[in-house]
Amino acid sequence: MCGIAGIAGAGAQSASRDVLANMCSQVLHRGPDDQGLGYYQGVHMGMQRLAVIDLETGNQPQTSADGQTVITYNGELYNYRELRAELIAAGFAFQTDSDTEVIATGYQVWGEALFPRLNGMFAFALFDQNKNKVLLVRDHIGIKPLYTAEIDGTLVWGSEVKSLLAFPDFPRRLNTLALQEFLAWEYVPETRTLFKDVQRLRPGCYLTFDLGTRTSQITSYWRVENAPAQQNKTHKEWSDDLGGRLEKAVKAQLVSDVPLGAFLSGGVDSSLIVAHMGDAKTFSIGFDDPSYNELDYAKQVAEHLQVDHTSKIIKPDALGLFDRLMHHLDDPIADFSIFPTFLVSEMTREHVTVALSGDGGDELFGGYDTYVAQHYGAMYDHLPGLLRKQLIPSLTSLLPPASQKKGLVNKIKRFAEGGALPEQLGHTRWRLFATPDELSRQLVGEAAKPDDLYGHIERLRGACDAMDPMNQGLYIDTYSYLTDNCLPKTDRMSMAVSLETRVPFLDPDVMTGAFSMPGEFKLSGGVTKPLLKELAAKHVPYDCVYRNKEGFSIPIKTWLMNEFASLLDRYLAPARLEAQGIFNVAYTTKLVQEHLANVANHSHRLWGLIVIQAWCDRWLDGTNA
Question: Please, which residues bridge with residue 32 across strands?
Fold first, then answer.
């Protein structure tokens, strides 16, 4: 696992060699074991290496057997040995045992047809000297990040935005549409970032940059098929099919030349992963607040599976941790669970270099409460609009927020909020934290102009119109919430401590099988993940499987009143907001006052504002970069 960076075109011809080294050093945490730099005609390519496979000869850049293709690579291939054997049978010799060289040589043989054959998580740069072009390639579902910018005939890329910002005179301009989306969804969807000039390469795509014309083109090579679910399998056949695919994926992802373990929450997804690992080291954390602590379930699963389990109740220095984590949010997300994800990664890294995670199980098999809300929302939508959109939300807003993470009162309030939103948003109504009307009151000036806030949902729904309604909802989550929030969160928080995290649920074969499965196996009578739970119950205790889903989070509501109260003063002070000229001072102050008085729970909205302000200080203005 590594961090990569590079320059191609006009900028590579004028930039000094120190520029590339500085771009790479920005992601030292991703690869502390080695720095590799390569300088070619019109192309500079670099990387920071975290050695996981082929510890002795796996350094980069590497070249193909004919010396004409150069590669810098971040990731792991789980089928590289099979590809390597195929290439050896075709007469090719290898100088290393690394998966990196397999990609370079495979490209020499198959060209772009190689990319859909790769099973793994990766982001890599190829310099095809024969064709005088650079290719940037990202894995099938975006497990590994890759950012790009094209400015005045120069292509710049990196595993994190901070590498691009290290390029001389890089423009730092705010993207106001992305700002609105961030405040509404807690992340920026699709290819946009908060910087106008920085884009994410889409999952399952590659970018081709022609060094002669200095123009680029993006091509898709993999996406879950938009097809009706298969109806010709019995319940048992689907269970056996899923179990076989998942076990195969887990076994494939155990390849490593360094110590390997797994995160274990005691829930369905992580427990299933660990059950297929055999002898494993597992890790979990909890907080003092009982509603934010699942350690008993994790312990129960670990004892049942007889694995080597390590757990810890965390009492973090919240403020000190905040400043540390903001360094890793140059493309910010406002997901509270960055804190426990970082903390469990930090603890895990003390013991192993690689950890398997259960990410993806909820998006593929229907694990979120939003799907249940949509199930009942279909009936709720038949109520008169005045009642559903105004009267009921107004009445529920009078209920004071409860202290528990979820709880009945909080669920009622959240359901009423989402139920008042447009029906065409489907289950994503309950993911939205600011409507266009609210944003028009919260923002001022250029930032307040109405924009395409729901556009990515509509585009994704159009791309999966052949699927049944449940699979449509899962498809939308997979290509938005998963790829733009959950995977970046896990990647950044684990790589912040140089821990590689693997996600067996997102094996292409598992994903294909999941979207071939009818929606009734993913939500039945308001029960989430029925088939996956049935499968998990074959391996772990029943009460660990059939319990309320709590999620991986922190008590942010009370932290904002206590540990993080100074952040409200620091970042949402009226004088600061007035000088900045982006946010409505009176509206923002009202949110703060209502939250502190426990009149309303504005934790999502306030946390998003805090993160944006910290991002502006550190990255947009560059004062703390």
Answer: 49
Q: What is the pLDDT of residue 34?
A: 77
**Residue for token pair 């729904």:** 461
> How far apart, in whole angstroms, are the C-alpha atoms of residue 353 and residue 343?
15
Vertex 218: Cα angle to 214 and 223 (nearest 5): 165
Best CA proximity match to 359, nearest among 247, 502, 244: 502
Q: How far apart are CA 54 and CA 186, in angstroms?
A: 39
> DSSP alpha helices (H): ranges in 186-313?
235-252, 268-275, 295-305
Q: 457: helix, coil or strand?
A: helix
Tokens of 70: 């150069």
Please write the tens of the pLDDT for every residue from 309-342: 999 887 778 888 999 999 999 999 999 899 999 9
Phi (first) and psi of residue 619, to 5 degrees: -120, -45
Q: Which residues contact 261 (CB under 8 A, 6 or more apart)?
A: 280, 281, 282, 283, 348, 351, 352, 354, 355, 356
**DSSP-H helix ranges across 464-584:** 469-477, 487-495, 508-516, 530-536, 542-545, 556-561, 565-571, 574-580
Alpha carbons 178 and 410: distance in angstroms, whole number: 28
Phi, psi at 116, each rounded to 5°? -70, -10
> What does the block give as tokens for 116?
């859909």
Structure tokens at 478: 């997979």
Could you give the C-alpha distances from 400 to 245, 404, 577, 607, in angstroms and in order? 46, 12, 28, 19
218-254 burial code (b ≥16 CB/10 A, e <16) = eeebbbbeeeebeeebeeeebbeebbebbeebbebbb
202, two tokens? 């889409």
The DSSP code sequence of 584-616 is -HHHHHHHHHHHHTTSS--HHHHHHHHHHHHHI
Output the six-digit token pair for 471. Answer: 């699979």
Instruction: Tell me if 124 sits within 8 A of 74, measured CB to CB.
Output: yes
Residue type, 315: K
Residue type, 14: S
pLDDT of residue 356: 97
Question: What letter would DSSP give residue 133?
Answer: E
Q: How do 500-502 and 354-356 pair as beta strands? A: parallel
Q: Which tokens in the block code for residue 587?
A: 């509206």
| C-alpha dist (Å) from residue 447 to 129, 181, 508 | 44, 11, 39
What confidence score (pLDDT) does residue 1 get? 60
Domains annotated for the chain, with CATH where assigned, are 2-220 (3.60.20.10), 225-553 (3.40.50.620)
Number of C-alpha atoms within 13 angstroms, CB side, residue 283? 24
Give the integer Cα–Cα distance in Å for 302 and 294.
13
3-state secondary structure (DSSP) of residue 67: coil
* Burial of residue 497, with CB atoms counted within 10 A of its CB: 0-12 exposed, 13-18 middle, 19 or more buried: middle
Q: Which pair of structure tokens corresponds to residue 415?
A: 């359901």
Region of residue 18 (left: phi > 0; alpha: psi -120 to 50; beta: else):
alpha
Do 293 and 286 touch, CB atoms closer than 8 A? yes
The per-type count for the chain, helices as H runs and strands as E runs, is 28, 19
Q: How far is CA 556 from CA 210, 294, 322, 484, in A?
A: 48, 17, 12, 22
What is the average per-residue pLDDT within 442-460? 92
The single-letter code of the amino acid at 263 is F
584 Cβ neighbours under 8 A, 6+ residues apart: 441, 442, 443, 444
Q: Give the pLDDT confidence of 128-187 residue by residue, as tens digits.
A: 999 999 999 999 999 999 999 999 999 999 999 999 999 999 999 999 999 999 999 999
